[in-house]
Amino acid sequence: MNIKLGQYKIFNEAASTLSFSLAAKNLFMSQSAVSQAINSLEKELDTALFIRRSKGINLTKEGLILHQHINSALELITSAENQILNFKDLKDGELTIGASDTISQYFLTQFLVLFHKRYPNVKIKVLNRTSLEMIELIKSGQIDLGFLNMPIEDESLTIKECLKVHDIFVSSKKENKIYSDKEISQMPLILIEKNTSSRQFIDNHFAKSGILLQPKIELGAHELLLKLAQVGLGISCVIKEFSTEYLNQGSVHEIRLEKPLPERSIAYAYLKRRTLSASSTKFIELLNNA
């Protein structure tokens, strides 16, 4: 069969109005074009769909069956088309983001609030995972965007930096001493847990000097690193940009180092082979315009 969707739309209008002339008017076509389309459809299906009388038309039994199904199908198509348009205009849809607790709390919250104000009908979902776990969520299509602690490289991902950050050591005591890497390593350390890219970055930095860090305490939350340093349980390695409240209040103090830890970045990532949704594109625009 060589039946086109347009023929079914013409049939549906004629079947709904029981008038070729009214169907033609509603579809902005000539009556002859409607008649030709119906005749062609009947020829392809090898059955009569209308009973033609001098005073009008009626559906045959076969025409009635076809009308019921075609009408439902066209309603589904129209609904899908409208939904796609709503997604494009962000009148509907979903934005699914993956980020660590730390990045969500200290970086993404402001952008999520702004996005929600601009596009209140878009559902927002945030999955909290480590950066290394985030990569698998991106690849499996479970999230639109993943926010990662750099450095991370993966050829299947598009990765773009969005924030520069600096790792520092903090203590409850304020002092002027400048510490070497070796001296820092011998202090009671409070570090983020091992299965994170942030911890790998810190460990690799000290490993270049032949130093293996052996923390006294390992934690899974940036806020706890600050709180335990504040109460004097040791010195914590934290992200300076996410610790400004504690630093400004004097709850913790930055330890001066002979060799400060290198600057690194937070980046967003998405799958190269996947087209970004309209909601993801708008969220990225918010990040880039900040």
Helix/strand layout:
Blueprint: H1 5-17, H2 20-27, H3 31-45, E1 50-53, E2 56-59, H4 61-88, E3 94-99, H5 101-118, E4 123-128, H6 131-139, E5 145-149, E6 157-165, E7 167-171, E8 178-179, H7 181-185, E9 189-192, H8 197-207, E10 217-219, H9 222-230, E11 235-239, H10 244-249, E12 253-254, E13 256-257, E14 264-271, H11 278-288
Parallel strand pairs: 3-4, 3-5, 8-13, 9-10, 9-11
Antiparallel strand pairs: 1-2, 5-14, 6-14, 7-11, 7-12
Helix pairs in contact: 1-2, 1-3, 1-4, 2-3, 5-11
Q: In order across it, which strands form the biggest sheet?
A: 4-3-5-14-6
Tally of helical segments: 11
N-to-C order of helices and strands: HHHEEHEHEHEEEEHEHEHEHEEEH
Low-confidence stretches: none
Q: What is the helix content?
A: 40-55%
What does this molecule look like?
There is one protein chain. With 290 residues, the chain is an alpha/beta fold. The chain contains eleven helices and 14 strands. Helix 2 (20-27) packs across helix 3. The two termini are 55 Å apart. The model has no long low-confidence stretch (mean pLDDT 88).
